[in-house]
């Protein structure tokens, strides 16, 4: 997500909502508080606003910087774009967030973002609370620094480890790409926004969905065939689809550009992927034969031909380490390029 400084803080908006839409706001809070199991997830009274503008904007949310009572800075992802008059949808959204949130809170992996809970103090729509990462995403970081191929490989390996961890718990990410990989204070990769694509695939959200994520999407996701003629086709999100997106993310990291960067039209990208075409493998990937093989296997046209995330991790473990001197010099180069 790119930085943006436009919208007022939702705390300010909440004042207007309480005055002009008090019934809707009260209904939303009652909806949340009526569910006994949801109460332990609420952080409504524990967040202190920092600043008057969001620091990032995503496809379905605005992201704000706020503070917990212990002083920790957190990122608050406030959902937006859906119909706030559809109480049935909002109730289902609460249930989905609660059901998945319980699972998310139990995840413990260095390369998977922690989930702190939900907040209902940001207007009608719920908000998700995560740690704040000052380094931003891998894409933002690469714009600020010159990085060695070894550093990029470390990120690729860490993303694979995160994906293997999620899949081992039957969690499908659904939207893996560079924008959803943050960097911690040691510049290690941390994967975020797992499973959100399923929750936010409802019609109330998809009316504002863009085609931008097609560059990472597997062909079976863009051309679903698992529905009857009377219903709208739903994307076939799967572990194999995540593996395909992982291959595209490798290309994105090594080229520092979106997959199919030479194609400016998303429709052309969709037709290319469905036709079995793929981005050109860059030279800095091709020279690493093991990594190049991982890419070509992971973006196979048929999902059954793609390796599992576990298998990918085992294959990447065979990539030889650069010499100590090479790694030391790369570290110095990265530091001086800041």
UniProtKB/TrEMBL annotation:
InterPro entries (alphabetical): Kinase-like_dom_sf, Prot_kinase_dom, Ser-Thr/Tyr_kinase_cat_dom, Ser/Thr_Kinases-Pseudokinases, Tyr_kinase_AS
Alphabetical UniProt keywords: ATP-binding, Kinase, Nucleotide-binding, Transferase
GO molecular function, one term: protein serine/threonine kinase activity
Membrane-traversing stretches: none
Protein's UniProt keywords contain Ligase: no
All copies of domain Protein kinase, residue ranges: 44-325
Top-level taxon in the UniProt lineage: Eukaryota
Name the record gives this protein: Kinase-like domain-containing protein
Originating species: Crucibulum laeve
């Amino acid at each position: 997500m790119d930085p943006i400084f436009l919208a007022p803080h939702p705390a300010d908006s909440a004042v207007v909502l309480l005055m002009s839409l008090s019934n809707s706001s009260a209904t939303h809070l009652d909806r949340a508080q009526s569910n006994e199991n949801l109460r332990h997830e609420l952080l409504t009274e524990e967040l202190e606003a920092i600043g008057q503008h969001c620091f990032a904007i995503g496809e379905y949310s605005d992201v704000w910087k706020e503070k917990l009572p212990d002083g920790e800075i957190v990122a608050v992802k406030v959902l937006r774009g859906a119909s706030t008059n559809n109480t049935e949808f909002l109730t289902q959204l609460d249930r989905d967030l609660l059901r998945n949130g319980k699972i998310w809170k139990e995840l413990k992996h260095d390369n998977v973002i922690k989930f702190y809970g939900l907040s209902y103090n940001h207007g009608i729509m719920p908000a998700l609370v995560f740690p704040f990462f000052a380094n931003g995403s891998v894409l933002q970081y690469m714009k600020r620094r010159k990085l060695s191929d070894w550093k990029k490989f470390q990120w690729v390996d860490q993303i694979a480890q995160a994906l293997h961890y999620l899949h081992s718990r039957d969690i499908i990410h659904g939207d893996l790409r560079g924008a959803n990989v943050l960097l911690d204070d040691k510049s290690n990769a941390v994967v975020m926004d797992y499973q959100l694509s399923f929750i936010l695939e409802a019609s109330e959200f998809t009316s504002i969905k863009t085609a931008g994520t097609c560059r990472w999407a597997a062909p079976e996701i863009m051309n679903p065939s698992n529905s009857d003629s009377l219903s709208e086709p739903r994307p076939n999100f799967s572990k194999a689809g995540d593996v395909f997106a992982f291959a595209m993310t490798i290309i994105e990291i090594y080229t520092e550009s979106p997959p199919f960067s030479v194609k400016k039209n998303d429709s052309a990208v969709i037709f290319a992927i469905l036709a079995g075409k793929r981005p050109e493998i860059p030279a800095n990937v091709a020279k690493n034969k093991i990594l190049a093989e991982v890419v070509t296997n992971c973006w196979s046209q048929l999902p059954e031909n793609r390796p599992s995330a576990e298998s990918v991790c085992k294959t990447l473990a065979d990539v030889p380490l650069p010499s100590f001197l090479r790694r030391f010099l790369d570290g110095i180069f990265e530091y001086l390029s800041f």
